[in-house]
Amino acid sequence: MLHKIINLTVRDVRFPTSVEQHGSDAMHTDPDYSAAYVVLDTDRGLRGFGLTFTLGKGTEIVVCAVEALAALVVGKSLQEIVSDFRGFYRLLTSDGQMRWLGPEKGVTHLATAAVLNAVWDLWARSEGKDPEQIVSCIDFRYITDVLTEKEAVGETEDQMQKEGYPAYTTSCAWLGYPDQQLKQLCTDALKSGWTKFKVKVGADLEDDIRRCRLIRQMIGPNNTLMIDANQRWDVAEAISWVSRLSEFKPLWIEEPTSPDDILGHAAISKALAPLGIGVATGEQCHNRVMFKQFLQASALQFVQIDSCRLGSVNENLAVLLMAHKFQVPVCPHAGGVGLCELVQHLILFDYICVSASLDSRMCEYVDHLHKHFTSPVVIQDAHYMPPKDPGYSCEMLEASVQKHQYPEGDVWKLHMNK
Ligand SMILES: C[C@H](O)[C@@H](O)CC(=O)C(=O)O
Ligand SMILES: [Mg+2]
Q1: ipTM of this predicted complex?
Q2: What homologous superfamily does CATH list for 149-398?
Q3: Using a 6 Å cutoff on CB, does residue 232 contact ligand 1?
Q4: pLDDT tens, position by position, 236-249
Q5: Which one of 76, 163, 293, 309 has the fewest beta carbons within 10 angstroms of its own beta carbon?
Q6: Distance 332 CA to ligand 1 centre (A)
Q7: pTM exceeds 0.90
Q8: Cα separations (Å) of 82 from 133, 228, 317, 393?
């Protein structure tokens, strides 16, 4: 356990997913799935791998922010960190100068996530953990009015090894896919056992009606449909637009408006409840304090944690526990590179140690870029199977990193010369 961290490297790794419109939505029309990829080296040779997800441009800014945090990590031993992980979390998020850039939001928080994801990976590779130890990593400051440490430790049975955790797919219906591709992908997904599908909406109502009709016809009345607008609308517009799509019976509308508008989400939730449509959000919810207020205001019916938007496992645990207290199901966001690999750990923890329920719960799956990881997710019959390798599953193949490093990797040299 006395692994002293002697070096932190961070690299800008980008995949040109926008070329084929993978990952496209109403607000992010040309996403290049990217990561600020962190490696921690220790004096005893053990390494920790972490990342935070970005969309191409701007990854270099996150890389700078990680570099600015490096001095707080390098020189510490793993034992020193995890014996007071809550304190270490606070050290990273409360640095007297750096916190001015956040606090606990935006680029600095994405950087915090990358660093802490690597620390968690290092810790997980070095030993096993129990729920009490994990809860001791959470900074309860600002949320004790709704959740205390005492309430936080729970237990349940583990059926996951046999059945896996239920998943839904977003990969059939990115906004930039033409109808023919959408049909083909949907046919293939149905054959592979998928029963829950998310469709991107929000750019053009007539297109949405056509695409939702197409998908609903293909999946039939009993499979589940979700729609995702990626923050495209104002509040009133969201209500009227989604009402027009209600005939397709979506389970939820995701990110209908600004991710910061808690009361707006509450108004949308209230208006759409009679139509049987819930509101899902979280992939751009900056921190546990925002989630606290979303829950307090009944502004969301599905909590979408994100392994890289929040301050790593530490802060995600706080949100899982608050969601449990408010009895709101957690359905994590995973649309990005490495997010499926990371978030599978969090959702398994939620089931095994917190919620003990699969009711209204499922984890997002996107079928992109897994081949670049040393321990890619395993999906069987539309379920995430528990990862077997030690660690947090976000180590990338070195060859992939080199090839996709921006701007010097071969992929980008080729791309820029076109
Ligand atoms: C830009 C990303 O692909 C985004 O569209 C992902 C997302 O909203 C989701 O997976 O949900
Ligand atoms: Mg989304």
Answers
A1: 0.99
A2: Enolase-like C-terminal domain (3.20.20.120)
A3: no
A4: 999 999 999 999 99
A5: 163
A6: 12
A7: yes
A8: 9, 37, 15, 19
